[in-house]
Description:
By secondary structure, the chain is mostly helical. The chain has one domain (about 5-70). It has two helices and two strands; from the N terminus they run ββαα. Strands 1-2 form a two-stranded antiparallel ribbon.
Amino acid sequence: MNKIGCPICKYYQFDSNCTAFPDGIPMMFLSGEKEHTERMKFQENDLVFEWISPEKQGERRAEAIERHKQVAV
């Protein structure tokens, strides 16, 4: 079980969306309850979990900080 959930996947986007689930990530994956290592019947594409690179993790963190600053203003 992946306790970290979706934020470390390269397809994850903010607001609980991702390229694999553009209409919203199912809670079982978002929470880390279930790993998304196989395509699900209800998916419209073949994307599954892939680790995000360390470089992209840093970029994603910086983007999250900027989003937070904009909301806080």
